Each structure stands twice: as structure tokens, then as C-alpha cells.
Amino acid sequence: MNVVVLHQARALARLGHSVEILTRRSSADAPAVVDLAERLVLRFLDAGPAQPLAKGGHELVIDEFSARLDEIDPVDVFHSHHWFSGMAALPVARRRGVPHLQSFHSIAADPSTPLSEGERPESPGRLAGEAFLARESDAVVAISAAEAHTVEERLGGDPSLTTIVPPGVDGSLFHPWTGGRRGTGYVVAAARLQPLKGLDLAIEAVAGVPEDIRPELIVAGEASADFDGYVDELQALAADRGIAAGVHFIGPQTRDDLAALLRESRLVLVPSHSETYGLVALEASASGVPVVASASGGLTEAVIDGLTGVVLRSRRPQDWSDAIAELMRDETRTAELGRAGRAHAEELSWEHSAVALADCYRRAVASGTR
């Protein structure tokens, strides 16, 4: 979500729009305002303690954040990128008579449904809040057709008010490897470290690859505070499968470091139970690296099965091991997938994404509020 917000905002500013990114102050050292670029401002608003909060704790400061939003200068449109911010911004937009657009980036599923159907609610109001925003916002901006379908089916959103704006990718930052042959090398799984991302399947899959071609597995991402002990469980699983020495948890990466990590890898694994899109898959394609992904949500749009990677409907570890092994053995096929992935990614720039988003804003302003 943060990557999409920042890059779309930068692209909108380059197109001549004035953009403010508004977020909660989580550090006492953060300045009130940061000029990120011409016509692009990052503003920190005081709501709750000036320190990081657990994800569920943000619900307690929605009203205070809303009050701070009501103090900013006039704007033409509010676009919220999480249900917390939507619940804070919608009443302000209504009082001001300007449109409110809502993006979710992930949508909660009721705890009684299977994990594969979506995110779990981290705080009490999430399920009701997301449904309210889908119905009451002037428009919903979905990142994929899969998310648009979820907005309609799970949240009761009006499909006529939902627009799909796919993300982009920085093809200069994420570009193919230009070195020599990589050898056995490594594969990458880059994600938040939480059960939804299916990293246990990545470990099981790599463990099942024949030893003579088995790659190392690099797991990049920040451990989620809401799932204490999950990394220990993954490490224990790797040890139990006999590949502990070949599984490396390297923590969160800068954008530059992630780009280098992807382009030097043999494959990128995205075994998530649910993804509204799966931006890392597109970044892997831009890097000329094939993707092995689960057929969940927007991943079937981010990865073109058989062209830019392999999309698996099975979560059986051996099926994943077989797919990885086949690509590890067939360098010609891997190179073909990598080239096609790069060509696909070159058609999806952040400028293209921003143009589509600006069109959403214009339509919302022209239509007026509900």
C-alpha cells in the first residue's frame, strides 16, 4: 500500500496535480511537513501518541485523526487508502461537500471463513467499517478485477462506482540482471511475515526440490507485530525439513536493496493465501525474473500464467516443488518467461497508473457527492 500511494502521488505531481499525503505522526521527531517533490507534500497529523501503534490500535484514534483532517486547507477530493483513514476522512469530505474515494488494498474476511478468502480483521470495527465505506463513498478505486469483485460481493459496493486502477512499476529501478550465469543461486519470497503470505509453503516447496538443483531461499520482509512467534515457527519448519542452513531471513529491505535482490534471483515465489494484486510479482517481472505464484485474488492478473511465470491452483507442496524444479532445470524456458515478464512490466508505468487515477478524480468531481 505504501509503495502504491507514494509512487502514484509522485506521478500525479509530475502530471501537474498538487498532492498531499496525510498520515498519523508516529514519532516525536517527525516534522510537521516534508516537501517530497514539486507539488507533493507529506504531512504528519497529531492523532494519538507520537509512537508506533499496533495495527489494531489505530481504530482508537480515528476520531482524533478526523479532527486533524478537518483543519487542513481546502482540497478537491479525498482519497483514503485504508479503512481507518476512510472512516476519518468520509465525514470531513461530507461536511466540505467534496468527493471521497476509497481504496482498501486488502479486505477482511469474516473469521469463520477460510484464510484463503482474505485478510483477517485486526480490530473490532474493520468488517463493518469496510462495508460502510464501500457503500457510502462516492467511488471505490480497486487495484485489480479480483478486488473489485470482492468489493461487490463481500462489501456490497456498487460496481458502477468501482474503478480498477492497476499499479505501476519503476522499470529503471527494477531491471533485469546483466551479469553472467547465476548457477543454482537463490529464490526470493518477499512479504510481510504473517500466515496470510503462505511462507510456510515456500519453505516446504524449496525443501522438496532435488538437492542437486535446490536453491537457497531468501525471505525478505518485516515480521508482523500481530503474529508474535511466526518467524520462529518458520525457522523451526526449515530445520525440521533439513534446510535451515539454506533459508535466510533478511528482514525488510529498502527499495534499492529489494530491486537488487530480485534481479539477481532465479525465481520469485508468491505463495500468498490472498492478494489484492501482488506488486512484488510485477516488480519481479520488471526484473526479468519468472514468478511462481498461487492463484489467489489479483495474482492471476499480476502474473500471466505460462507467459511471465507459473500460477498454481494447488497448495500441495510437492506441486510447488515440481514447478520450481522444472524451471531450475530449464534455463531456456526461464529466460523466455523473464523476457516476457519484462515486456509486460514495461507496459505498466506509474505514469500510466496516475493518468487512470486522475481520470477517477475528475469523474468524481464532475459527478458531485452523494
Keywords:
370 residues, alpha/beta, Rossmann fold, 2 domains, 13 helices, 13 strands, globular
Commentary on this structure:
The protein folds into 2 domains: 2-168 and 350-367, Glycogen Phosphorylase B (Rossmann fold); 186-346, Rossmann fold, CATH 3.40.50. Helices cover 39% and strands 15% of the residues. The protein has helices at residues 2-14, 62-69, 83-96, 126-136, 145-155, 199-207, 230-240, 255-263, 279-286, 299-302, 317-329, 331-346, 350-367, and strands at 19-24, 33-37, 40-45, 78-80, 100-102, 139-142, 162-164, 186-190, 216-220, 247-251, 267-270, 291-294, 309-312. The strands form 3 sheets. A 6-stranded parallel beta sheet has the order 10-9-8-11-12-13, sandwiched between helices. Strands 4-5-6-7 form a 4-stranded parallel beta sheet, sandwiched between helices. Helix 1 (2-14) crosses helix 13 (350-367) and helix 6 (199-207) crosses helix 11. It is globular, with a radius of gyration of 21 Å. The protein starts with a helix and ends with a helix.
